[in-house]
């Protein structure tokens, strides 16, 4: 084999390896049967979510995943495959799943999320999650709920004071019960112990 070709292949394997390492998620899918227009539509949808769709020879991808110790992906690397890489853990699974609902020729096979190989079930669960901005807004709404509830109570108390319908009832503090003295029977027993 020509040294130049070998160098090119090694460089390509190194590039694929670094893409897997630098991505939060990567999803392997089969695109056999999709038209050029459908693939263009898919690429456009993925690009909108900052997902990069790449098509490599399976042998080059297998060498890259072997370098990373991800041999579980070897089974998915058969047939005409494309790999969607993203820094967002949910974006590739979400976009590909949505596209596959209307294009049955797109088959999602397997994936890699945060360095671990995952199956189709996990990818379906990830597809149901919102994107990063959606998760942040959900988290913020959870944080704001107690604060806004407290603010509503304070406002209600302030409004009631203005109306004059708010009164504070004074309650008398009950006296704490006094500790009872020790029973008198304990004293004679102590005296008997002294005498003995």
What would you note in describing this structure?
With 196 residues, the chain is an alpha+beta fold. Helix content is 54%, strand content 13%. It has seven helices and five strands; from the N terminus they run H-E-H-E-H-E-H-E-E-H-H-H. The chain has helices at 3-22, 36-48, 58-68, 91-102, 120-127, 132-163, 186-195, and strands at 25-30, 52-54, 81-86, 107-113, 116-118. It has a five-stranded antiparallel beta sheet, sandwiched between helices. The radius of gyration is 34 Å and the shape is elongated. The N and C termini lie far apart (110 Å).
Short structural summary:
This protein has 196 residues and is of the alpha+beta class.
User: What is the CATH homologous superfamily assignment of the largest domain?
Assistant: Ribosomal protein L10, N-terminal RNA-binding domain
Low-confidence stretches: none
Largest sheet: 5 strands, antiparallel
How many separate structural domains? 2
What name does the CATH topology of the largest domain carry? Alpha-Beta Plaits
Derived structural class: alpha+beta
| DSSP strand count | 5
Q: How far apart are the first and last residues' alpha carbons, in Å?
A: 110 Å
Please report the first level of CATH classification, the CATH class of the largest domain: Alpha Beta
What does the radius of gyration come to?
A: 34 Å
Q: What overall geometry do the principal axes of the alpha carbons give?
A: elongated
CATH architecture of the largest domain: 2-Layer Sandwich
> What topology, given as strand order, has the largest sheet?
2-3-1-4-5
Give, in order, the helices and strands: HEHEHEHEEHHH
Number of helices: 7
Quick check: average pLDDT?
A: 78
* Amount of beta strand: 5-15%
Helix content: 40-55%
């Amino acid at each position: 084999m020509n040294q130049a070709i070998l160098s090119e292949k090694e460089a390509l394997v190194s590039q694929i390896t670094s893409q897997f390492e630098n991505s939060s998620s990567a999803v392997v899918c089969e695109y056999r049967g999709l038209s050029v227009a459908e693939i263009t539509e898919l690429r456009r949808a993925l690009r909108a979510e900052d997902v990069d769709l790449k098509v490599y020879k399976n042998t080059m991808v297998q060498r890259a995943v072997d370098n990373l110790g991800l041999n579980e992906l070897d089974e998915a690397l058969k047939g005409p495959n494309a790999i969607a890489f993203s820094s967002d853990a949910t974006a590739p699974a979400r976009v590909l799943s949505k596209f596959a609902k209307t294009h049955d020729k797109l088959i999602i096979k397997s994936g890699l999320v945060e360095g671990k190989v995952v199956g189709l079930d996990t990818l379906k669960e990830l597809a149901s999650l919102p994107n990063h901005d959606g998760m942040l807004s959900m988290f913020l709404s959870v944080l704001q709920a107690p604060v806004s509830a407290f603010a509503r109570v304070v406002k209600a108390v302030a409004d009631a004071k203005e109306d004059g319908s708010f009164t504070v009832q004074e309650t008398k503090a009950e006296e704490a019960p006094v500790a009872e003295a020790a029973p008198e029977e304990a004293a004679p027993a102590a005296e008997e112990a002294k005498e003995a």
